[in-house]
Amino acid sequence: MRKYVICILFFSFASCRQNGKLAEMEDQLEMTTLMAYQLYEENTRLKNELRRLKASGAVIEEKLEKQKPPKEEELKGPPESSKRKLFLMRMALMNFQLKENRFPETVQELKQVLGEVPVEDRSKSNVIHLTKNGRGGWVYDPDEGTLDFNTYNGH
Predict the structure, then answer these.
(1) Cα 136–125–75 angle (5° rounding)?
(2) Are residues 14 and 56 in the same domain?
(3) Quick one: 47 and 96 in the same domain?
(4) How far is CA 103 from CA 92, 125, 132, in A?
(5) 111 within domain boundaries
(6) Better-scored residue on pLDDT, 104 or 30
(7) Nearest one of 56, 132, 141, 50 to 93, comparing CA atoms
(8) How many domains does the chain have?
């Protein structure tokens, strides 16, 4: 059986060579090899880009996690308008962080980012505190980049 296969291959090779098709087949093989290499290079580039995007996506998800809206039990009844104001301030904070790759370091810098600090409706205060103290307004943590209600206890 092997002899017949070898003979057939030999005669095919000789036949192609005689017809001038060998050079054409060699060109096609060279082009196919080049295309395969180009596809390999493009595949490698896309895999690296995907890894980079996944890594940056994880960082963004982590940052978004810190900026999640407050839980219902934390709100203890702030009016809807205060929730909306908090959401808009957080979006401005997130925009700053994505552009500058850092959070505002001081309350003054945060005020510049926000432009005008809105009044929290329950306490009627627009003061930004660095620690929760129950006086109303807002509380900002520059290390974590979080902004939240400074729960008002009526005093």
Answers:
(1) 40
(2) yes
(3) no
(4) 11, 23, 19
(5) yes
(6) 104
(7) 141
(8) 2
Asked whether the beta carbons of 120 and 150 are under 8 A apart, the reply is: yes
How much is the pTM? 0.49
CA pair distance 11, 5, nearest whole angstrom:
10
Percent of the chain topping pLDDT 90: 21
User: 114-129, pLDDT tens digit by residue?
Assistant: 888 999 888 889 999 9
Q: Report CA-CA distances (Å) from 100 to 64, 88, 97, 110.
A: 16, 18, 5, 13
- Structural domain harbouring 32: 2-60
